[in-house]
Amino acid sequence: MLRGVLGKTFRLVGYTIQYGCIAHCAFEYVGGVVMCSGPSMEPTIQNSDVVFAENLSRHFYGIQRGDIVIAKSPSDPKSNICKRVIGLEGDKILTNSPSDFFKSRSYVPTGHVWLEGDNLQNSTDSRFGL
């Protein structure tokens, strides 16, 4: 009797660990569901839209201009931001600063990308501090 209960318990624990590993790999390497909050990507992505953020294309094709990415927020590393890739490392970016009407030039440093929201008037992005 005890042997049967222990056997079922160990099988249940084994299945739980297996399914947990499969779920972890799926979310880590394939992608997951993300809720985007804030108006910075409007009209493309609305506030509170739920999107599937896939991870495979960056491994196969790299990050390209025009891609929409989920990145760590520089002001709060515990939260994520959703932005569009405008420039890759070494690119010269000509932008209007959100605080004025003057154009400024910036170069994207090595190992970085330039991110902007589609709603330029209401987005904290790579232009922050210009």
Automatic annotation (TrEMBL):
GO biological process: protein processing involved in protein targeting to mitochondrion; signal peptide processing
Listed transmembrane segments: none
Gene3D superfamilies associated with the record: Umud Fragment, subunit A (2.10.109.10)
GO molecular function annotation: serine-type endopeptidase activity
EC identifiers of the protein: 3.4.21.-
One annotated Gene Ontology cellular component of this protein: mitochondrial inner membrane peptidase complex
Residues at the catalytic site: 40, 83
Residues in Peptidase S26 domain copies: 17-94
Subcellular location: Mitochondrion inner membrane
Root EC class: hydrolase
Pfam families: Peptidase_S26
Functional description taken from the UniProt entry: Catalyzes the removal of transit peptides required for the targeting of proteins from the mitochondrial matrix, across the inner membrane, into the inter-membrane space. Known to process the nuclear encoded protein DIABLO.
Name listed for the protein in its UniProt record: Mitochondrial inner membrane protease subunit
Organism: Rhinolophus ferrumequinum
